Amino acid sequence: MLRAHPEHLGALVALRHPGLRVATGLVPDDSVLRAVDSEAVRPDAVFVAPDAGPWVVLEVQRGRDPDKAWRWPLAVSLLLDQRRVMGDLVVVTTRREVTSWAQVVVRHRGPLGSVLSLSPLVVQLTPEVAQRLLDPSRPELAFYAAWAVKGDESPEARAVIETSLTLTGALPPTLREAQLRAILNTLSDAMVASLTESAMNLEDIPESPAARALRLAFETRGAARGKAEGKAEAVLAVLSARGLVATEPQVAAVLGCRDATVLDAWLRAVASVQDVDALLASAPRR
Predict the structure, then answer these.
(1) With contact defined as beta carbons under 8 Å apart, do 90 and 56 qualify?
(2) 134 and 113 in a common domain
(3) What is the C-alpha to C-alpha distance for residues 48 and 32, in angstroms, rounded to an integer?
(4) Shared domain check, 112 and 25
(5) Torsion of CA 7, 63, 40, 45, to 10 degrees
């Protein structure tokens, strides 16, 4: 998400560090940085000003990684050498312990007292921050709110995710589908199953805004070609979001189905099955 939308980085930094502003006009650059001995350093993303000027190394850090004690100084040094101006290392995380670790991991002292240290700017996305990311005027930031509560299955987290889905529903169709996939990819299987069941429950009246956003995103691509194909596309969308890979014959079987009873059965089962074979086998027998 951040590689595709570098402008989001400025919004996240300003949220946690109101007095700081990321330089405007930064564009994605090759994030493989090479030293003279061909040693490669691969941060998650590198953004640079079109001309010589500011740069940002971005790391989305899920946990501690001792190798970063050596890799981060090397990446920063390479860019400092190439562009002749100091930029920033920004670490985005949802975990408090990663925040503490990132701020001190690069502290090296030589036997004679020489010191090499690097203090990144850490942006920690917490459940409290998630509420501030649910901004109707910036629906594209709803993904980061959902990410901030990933792994949490409490009612409060569920409310954040449902609001994220509702705001996502306000995006244009192409952006909506991409953001929906991104949100679903951050969630546990149990949460995805619960949300999908709500979205596909045809007896749930009135339909919640979050369920409607989820259902419409699943069905949009195929809706213009018929309701059955829209449901088939929805089945494949949930499989993709859960990381379940369908073979070409399996994809053809789903897209070729026009039996509403079978498609509805698949929609109910797709959030919890362990593989695509089990999904296809869940269809009611005639």
Answers:
(1) yes
(2) no
(3) 13
(4) yes
(5) -10
Decide which of 124, 147, 165 is a domain's last residue.
Answer: 124
Q: Which domain holds residue 119?
A: 7-124
Burial class (CB in 10 A: 0-12, 13-18, 19+), 123: buried
Domain-embedded: residue 188? yes
Pick the closest to residue 91 from 65, 57, 64 (CA basis). Answer: 57
Question: What is the b/e burial string over 200-230, where b = at least 16 CB atoms within 10 angstroms of the residue's CB?
Answer: beeeeeeeeebbbbbbbbbbbbbbeeeebbb
Q: Tokens representing 145?
A: 């709110």
* DSSP tag of 279: H
User: Do both 117 and 172 map to the same domain?
Assistant: no
Q: Of 186 and 134, which is predicted with more confidence?
A: 134
The pTM score is 0.67
Same domain for 120 and 135?
A: no
Q: Which of 89, 106, 124 is the last residue of a domain?
A: 124
Task: Give the C-alpha separation, 93 to 160, whole Å.
Answer: 18
Residue 2 located in a structural domain: no
Q: d(Cα 217, Cα 211) in Å, to the nearest integer? A: 10
- What are residue 32's phi and psi, to 5 degrees? -95, 110
Helix, strand or coil for residue 239?
Answer: helix
Read off the tokens for 200.
Answer: 């596909």
User: CA nearest 209: which of 157, 165, 153?
Assistant: 165
DSSP string, 62-114: SS--TTHHHHHHHHHHHHHHHHSS--EEEEEES-HHHHHHHHHS-EEE-TTS-
Please say whether the dihedral angle defined by the alpha carbons of residues 190, 196, 237 and 245, taken in this order, is positive or negative: positive
> Each residue of 114-156: pLDDT tens digit?
999 999 999 999 988 888 899 888 899 999 999 998 878 788 8
